[in-house]
């Protein structure tokens, strides 16, 4: 019975001439086409969306503010992720093979971890910026200066580079499991990343749980402060009959918009990244038994956060919609187009 089953199975290897070659993923042509189509769409949305943010903030002088520089740097990280990481990861995830050599595997993986971490760190610093803008608006301009924002950007990139290149290129992820990896998991033609317990805990804390906790606390505080401010405006409106109706409408709209925006910000971030970092945190403690297909699926959920970032942090702004219109209609090539008032 077993021999007949083995005879009907067709096992394909990444490299047929190698003894320790990885096996190709056994997927139908229709499924492969569907997965490639989904991946290409995700890559295009990520690249085009963040490129539009980069062009808009770089071109229009009215957008040259400390806050927008944070959004610009975030868009650069997400744009590079879409260009330099996602296309290679798409082939690796679908085919289960890596054809570009071990050195490029380490390089691509380093950029992968670095740019994902950079995106998360930028989101964290943007939440800090929004905290001072909403909760302490009178001191906002003195506390969030250009120098402070540049320091935030510099910290995001340096810390993410340490997370990515330091961990992968120096093989810090294999310190505890080097023998296990090369004896039981490694195969020729693969690009598999595993972490020991200590590395997994440190990486998850630095790259997700700590920034995520900070963001959750900050946005919770922002929500309550924004709600309190909206109610205060409502109380003033009730005492001033002449502006009652307009103020009531404005405050109610503001309260709903604050709740909706903050819900989307935290909801998308947690939905996209929680599955991967939860499984990555647990995997070393269950003897690395998590299926690789599950890791790939969860990592692509995380990638989608970079596609959604332009929508959340830029498309919600009216200035961006006006900038987008000028970009798509090629008005940015006209004289003095950089001085167009977008507000």
TrEMBL record:
Residues 49-313 form the G-protein coupled receptors family 1 profile domain. The chain crosses the membrane at residues 33-57, 69-91, 111-128, 148-173, 209-226, 258-277, 297-320. It comes from the Eukaryota. SMART domains: 7TM_GPCR_Srsx. This is Trace amine-associated receptor 1. Keywords: Cell membrane, Disulfide bond, Endoplasmic reticulum, G-protein coupled receptor, Glycoprotein, Membrane, Receptor, Transducer, Transmembrane, Transmembrane helix. It is a multi-pass membrane protein. One of its GO terms (cellular component) is plasma membrane. GO terms for molecular function: trace-amine receptor activity. It is found in: Cell membrane; Endoplasmic reticulum membrane. SUPFAM superfamilies: Family A G protein-coupled receptor-like.
């Amino acid at each position: 019975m077993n021999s007949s089953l083995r005879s009907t199975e067709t096992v394909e290897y990444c490299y047929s001439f190698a003894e320790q070659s990885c096996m190709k993923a056994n997927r139908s042509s229709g499924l492969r086409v569907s997965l490639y189509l989904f991946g290409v769409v995700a890559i295009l949305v990520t690249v085009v969306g963040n490129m539009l943010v980069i062009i808009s903030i770089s071109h229009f002088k009215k957008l040259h503010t400390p806050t927008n520089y944070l959004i610009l740097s975030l868009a650069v990280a997400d744009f590079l992720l879409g260009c330099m990481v996602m296309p290679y990861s798409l082939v690796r995830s679908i085919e289960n093979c890596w054809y570009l050599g071990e050195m490029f595997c380490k390089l691509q993986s380093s950029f992968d971890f670095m740019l994902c971490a950079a995106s998360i760190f930028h989101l964290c610093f943007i939440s800090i910026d929004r905290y001072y803008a909403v909760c302490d608006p009178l001191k906002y301009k003195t506390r969030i200066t250009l120098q402070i924002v540049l320091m935030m950007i510099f910290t995001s990139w340096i810390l993410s580079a340490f997370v990515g290149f330091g961990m992968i290129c120096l093989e810090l992820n294999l310190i505890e499991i080097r023998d296990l990896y090369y004896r039981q998991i490694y195969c020729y033609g693969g690009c598999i990343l595993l972490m020991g317990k200590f590395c997994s805990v440190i990486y998850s804390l630095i790259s997700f749980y700590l920034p995520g906790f900070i963001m959750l606390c900050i946005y919770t505080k922002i929500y309550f402060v924004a709600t309190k401010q909206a109610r205060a405006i409502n109380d003033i409106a009730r005492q001033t009959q002449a502006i009652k109706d307009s103020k009531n409408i404005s405050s109610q709209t503001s309260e709903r918009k604050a709740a909706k925006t903050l819900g989307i910000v935290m909801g998308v971030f947690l939905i996209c990244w929680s599955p991967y970092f939860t499984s990555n945190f647990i995997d070393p403690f269950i003897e690395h038994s998590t299926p690789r297909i599950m890791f790939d699926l969860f990592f692509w959920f995380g990638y989608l956060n970079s596609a959604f970032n332009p929508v959340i942090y830029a498309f919600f702004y009216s200035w961006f919609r006006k900038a987008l219109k000028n970009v798509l209609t090629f008005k940015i090539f006209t004289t003095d187009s950089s001085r167009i008032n977008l507000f």
